[in-house]
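Fold this sequence, please.
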Amino acid sequence: MIPDRIIEQGTLTTDGGRAAVEVRLPWYRALPASCISEVALAVDGVRAPADSLTWTMNGETHAIAELATRADDWWFPLDSAVVSGELPVEAGGEHRVDVELKLYIPYIIIGDGEVLRIEEHDTKTMAAASTKEAVA
């Protein structure tokens, strides 16, 4: 619905072995974390291993697979979440960042009790900031 605003420009960070980027909800209403069914992160065409991905929202970090149990943890349209994964990315320079989100919309029934599932993708080009420098 709002795919060109998923990735927040200028939020790519790296520690050399792990990359992270801030993302926004591509929907106009809040959704519980349990509605996040799939997430993918790639930088410069290299995809982070699915089992390395984490999701940070409302001050808590979870593996993507754990989100299915987080029905009381809400993602609001004005709040950013952070997607992070094991990716060797060098700080500086321009990098192409791709994020894919697949979300269930629980209040839109499309037939036989099945709910709407949206699949959104965004790509942005930005420099990567080093998290090592930010901590120093």
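The first strand starts at residue 13 and ends at 14. The chain has a mean pLDDT of 93.
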